[in-house]
Specification:
38% helix, globular, 3-stranded parallel β-sheet, oxidoreductase, Rossmann fold, binds 5,10-Methenyltetrahydrofolate, alpha/beta, 6-stranded parallel β-sheet, 12 helices
Amino acid sequence: MRAAMVLKRSRKKELGWINRRRQPWSLEPLSSTFFSSSYSYILGPDLPDIWTPLAPPPLSSLNQDSTKLIPTIIDGKSIAEEIRAVISEEVRQMKDTIKKVPGLAVVLVGQRRDSETYVRNKTKACQEVGIASLLAELSEDCREEDILNAVTSFNRDPSVHGILVQLPLPKHMDEDKILTAISVEKDVDGFHPLNVGNLALRGREPLFIPCATKACIELLIRSGVELRGRNVAVIGRSKVVGLPTSLLLQRHHATVSNVHAFTKNPEDITREADVVISAAGVPNLVRRSWLKRGSIVIDVGTNPVEDPSSEHGYYLTGDVCYEEALQVVSAITPVPGGVGPVTIAMLLSNTLESAKRAYGFS
Ligand SMILES: Nc1nc(=O)c2c([nH]1)NC[C@@H]1CN(c3ccc(C(=O)N[C@@H](CCC(=O)O)C(=O)O)cc3)C=[N+]21
């Protein structure tokens, strides 16, 4: 009985059900950046709810009165590069010290051109930082069982620390069943119900936070945006971006309004927001009239638009009418070159964290 309880407790701890305090890792060798995978940093400080009638401090980067705004273009590409440099150095240290490297396994079903491009980018990014990558490619008409088998074999493989099933899956697949089959300790996408639940509940620490969500918060923090007390509008509520981003923003003490396809007059809500994060998957959804003057826009949309003259037969566009937004915002992420590259950097970061956990390497 006692043994069972002890076992249960350690299992709980392993799964992140028990609140743990982790030491933030220091970044002396590369202190020009402040990227850190420490949980208090990315999850936000765990503050008690004490209601005070004080207004939040003014946002220094917002100059709402000036007639001519010169918006900051938030450069995701170079931020991703800095993060990858930190990861690369850590992977090298791990390899030198314990002769092991992190491993990421990707499951790709079917032949969507955009999915193929993303997976190629992920594999290339792994190579660049010294993370081993494995790819299981299955045909569009494979059985659900074939995918489950691929996931199960990666679950058992000790050289694999992260498993990613590229979404969307073909319509006839039970996505939820497949994502839940991924071992919670290898769920680098952070879509497993246990990881989502632990992100939602304050005082708990998920083993992984979804990569695009981490990318949004990282971009805001690096742009000097104080989230505490800010009005943030999140457009979209998907498990990939919208929902986890709303949850993480609340842990950073932002006032979050989540608008979605059923929201009446969403522009009335987004127009009140200091920060707008769009993850709707609809090109040109966010117009100039949706945005408050001086606000900050994070465009998570990566919408492929058919274009025979482009290299891969399509080009990428965000959810935001970029040219219109530039006339009113104080800062914005472009597409491409904004959230996307940082999302991939966060996938590498989650895979490295997972390997460190597996090998007890800090
Ligand atoms: N299980 C799963 N996890 C995901 O994280 C996931 C997914 N499925 N399915 C699709 C979406 C989309 N996504 C992107 C990541 C990076 C770029 C990215 O790096 N974009 C580059 C351009 C890429 C290009 O050249 O086409 C950029 O914005 O600059 C785009 C999209 C991850 N997703």
